[in-house]
Amino acid sequence: MELHELDVRLRIAELEYLLRPVRVAITRDHGTVTIDGVHVELQKGIEVELPYWLSRAIEEEELGKLSETPMSLEDIARIHFTTLSTRTPADLEQLPQYFYQEAKEYIKLLDERVRRELNPALLEEKQKAQQYLLEIADKRLLIILQSLRSPTNIAELYSKLSPEEQTILQLLQKALERWRELVLPRPG
C-alpha cells in the first residue's frame, strides 16, 4: 500500500460517513427533494431518513433537526480517559463508529462558532477537544506500533481499530515486510 492508497482509503471512509443514512425531523415545509431518483417530501412534523450530508444542509437551512445527538466535549473527554488508561492492546476499547469523522466535524463547527461569536469559552472548548483528540490518536498509534512486534497482538487488536486506524496498520505492516526483504539477509 502506498501513500496514494492511504489517501484513497481515508477518503472512502469519509464518504461512507457523509453518505450514511440518518433521521431528520422536518420543522418547516419545503416541498419535495429527489435523491437518487427517489422523491422525498419535506413536510413539517414528519421524520425522514436522508444521507448525512443532506441532513446537515437541511439543518443549516433551518428546515429540520437531526435526530442523533452530536458529539460533545464530554464524549471526547470520556474516550480520552479510557484510551489514556490503556496499558496493553488487549485493554484497548473500540471507538464509537465514525469517531474520528464526528470529532473532526465537532471541532470544525466549534471553530466556525468561535469566529462568529468571539466567545472565549468556545475557544477553550475547541482547544480542549483538539488536545484530547490528538492525545487519543497518539496513544492509539503507539499501541498499533507496539503491536507490530507481535502478530498475535495484531490479530487481537485489529477488530478494535477504526477504519482509519486499520488502514494505517496495514500500511505499516506492508512497509515493514518490504523493509525486511530489502535490508535483512534472506534465510538459507
UniProtKB/TrEMBL annotation:
Entries under Gene3D superfamilies matching the protein: 1.20.58.2050
Pfam family, one: Sld5
Residues in GINS subunit domain copies: 59-180
The protein's name: Conserved crenarchaeal protein
Species assigned in the record: Hyperthermus butylicus (strain DSM 5456 / JCM 9403 / PLM1-5)
